[in-house]
Amino acid sequence: MSAFHVAATVLIAALLLPGWVCLRARVLDAIVALELIGATTTIVLVCLAEGYHRGVYFNVALVAAAVTWIGGLVYVRFLARYL
Fold it and tell me: Are the C-beta atoms of 49 and 60 separated by less than 8 Å?
């Protein structure tokens, strides 16, 4: 097990607190926590791609970063009346 696998495991465990905030907090705080989850997930995917020495897996992290950013904008647009 390499350092990248350990880092990915620690980062996955670190997703518990923002996940709890998404479930229990106000809408604005939940959107911020959701963006944090997306960024952390992207870093986890980069760590796994490097840990497995597969360059093509970096594309998955790139797509996840773009989808997270666009998804956050969509959530803010449709939930703006609740903010």
Answer: yes
